[in-house]
Specification:
Blueprint (H helix, E strand, L loop, with lengths): L5 E7 L2 E7 L5 E8 L5 H10 L4 E6 L12 H14 L3 E6 L17 H9 L3 E4 L9 E5 L3 E5 L5 H5 L5 E5 L1 H12 L18 E5 L1 H4 L4 H7 L2 H17 L3 E3 L2 H8 L9 H15 L4 E5 L5 E5 L16 E5 L1 H4 L2 H4 L2 H17 L5 E2 L2 H8 L3 H13 L4 E3 L16 E3 L1
Parallel strand pairs: 4-5, 5-6
Antiparallel strand pairs: 1-2, 2-3, 3-9, 4-7, 7-8, 8-9, 10-14, 11-13, 12-13, 15-17, 16-17
Length: 410
């Protein structure tokens, strides 16, 4: 059990400075703002809207129902979704424990709709295994801001209950709380994935990564929809066995994370614009649009390709179907997606060895991506436990430039 002692100096109305002593004999200075009661929702939405890099949430109750767009809970969840859509990494853990005694038949299902909304938006969201009750109400933003207290994300807690909560700013304290959230990963329920996802592959040509006019350019200019649509088309080719593909707008919009509104057709325009870029900017496809708006796509580089995926083919590497089944296409940012593709390619080249070695400079030169972009992508993969890294060490008396590159394994 952690014991906390607060030494407080008030320096402004509603704001205080505290030194928090933890059981690990570590002290962390923080600036604290009280957001108890009715000020919680507005204050948290402001903090989520200001997030730049990452948001971690561990929440017992995130109770939401469809059609309640004006509720405070919806606004909180929508702030997480908005953060994800502007490129912030969002990781959420939700409770799924029994709500009546220990009877596993009565699981906490109040978080199901929030879970689906976040997952559909591409957030990394997991239920905690039912055997453990997740009773946290904890948020950590950008490794510096901690929001903690008794407040669940329910209308009753936000509008009726007497709840206490605070915003605590301090990198050392945030680090302690991030470590606490990190412990939840071992209890996260595994997603349901079909067995074939572990075996099936989609063939991607090497030049998609190695030539600067394809994926490297997409990453540089931020063409996320074009990048994702192209890979989806490759998957369709794999499943249907033909290079000509009819686009299902609603299904494709869902796969790309584009909101579908029946009263508007903007999602169709987004898909057509991505297809237009794949044709005119990247030369990867051709397409036709008939009078009804139906979109028929032809994969140019696969029109003559072998359809026998059991046979190796020079010039291609294999992307696991698990990339989609596990939701990596939705959870990873574009830079991390590119790093995952490159790691998959490097892993395939390295066989039968389990590890591959290449420095950031070498990766940058090979894939025409700046070192900071590749470094960010690899760090995100490591953070999600998608890649293992053996960091090279500098021997005594050795110059830094002589240090060997890190080793990696998916």
């Amino acid at each position: 059990m952690r014991i906390k002692k607060y030494i407080v100096n008030f320096f402004a109305a509603g704001i205080l400075t505290a030194v928090i002593f933890c059981a690990q004999a570590r002290a962390a200075s923080v600036e604290a703002v009280d957001i108890s009661g009715r000020s919680y929702a507005e204050s948290v939405v402001q903090e989520l809207n200001a997030a730049r890099e990452e948001i971690y949430v561990a929440m017992y109750s995130m109770y939401l129902r469809y059609g309640e767009e004006n509720s405070l809970v919806y606004k909180l969840v929508d702030a997480l979704i908005a953060a994800r859509r502007r490129g912030v990494f969002v990781r959420v853990y939700l409770d799924k424990s029994p709500v009546i005694g220990n009877d596993i038949r009565h699981l906490n299902k109040g978080n199901d709709i929030a879970y689906k909304m976040l997952k559909d938006a591409g957030a990394a969201v997991s239920f905690i295994q039912p055997a453990l009750k997740l009773h946290e109400k904890l948020i950590v933003i950008d490794g510096e801001t901690v929001i903690d207290g008794s407040t669940n994300w329910t209308e009753k807690a936000l509008l009726e209950n007497a709840e206490s909560a605070e915003i605590l700013r301090g990198k050392d304290f945030a680090k302690l709380k991030l470590a606490r959230i990190g412990e939840l990963e071992k209890y996260a329920a595994a997603p349901e994935v079909s067995p074939r996802a572990l075996l099936d592959k989609v063939r991607v040509r090497n030049s998609f990564l190695e030539e600067d006019r394809f994926a490297p350019m997409m990453v540089t200019v931020g063409d996320r929809y074009a990048f994702d649509l192209y890979l989806l088309l490759l998957r369709e080719f794999k499943e249907k066995g033909r290079a000509s593909i009819s686009i299902d707008y609603v299904k494709t919009a869902g796969q790309l994370g584009i909101k579908v509104e029946t009263k508007h057709s903007s999602y169709r325009r987004y898909i057509r614009w991505a297809a237009h870029k794949l044709k005119t900017r990247y030369g990867l496809i051709d397409y036709t649009i008939d009078k009804s708006g139906a979109l028929e796509v032809l994969l140019l580089d696969y029109a003559q390709a072998s359809k026998d995926y059991s046979m190796p083919e020079s010039g291609y590497f294999n992307l696991p179907i698990a990339y989609w089944e596990y939701g990596l296409d939705r959870q990873l940012l574009l830079r991390a997606k590119f790093a995952y593709m490159a790691a998959t390619y490097e892993q395939e080249i390295a066989r039968p060895r389990l590890w591959w070695r290449r420095g950031l400079k070498g990766l940058s030169e090979k894939y025409h991506i700046d070192e900071s972009t590749m470094d960010y992508g690899l760090r995100q993969l490591k953070k999600l436990d998608l890649i293992e890294v053996k960091h090279s060490r500098i021997k005594p008396g050795q110059d830094y430039k002589d240090r060997k590159p890190n080793e990696y394994r998916l």
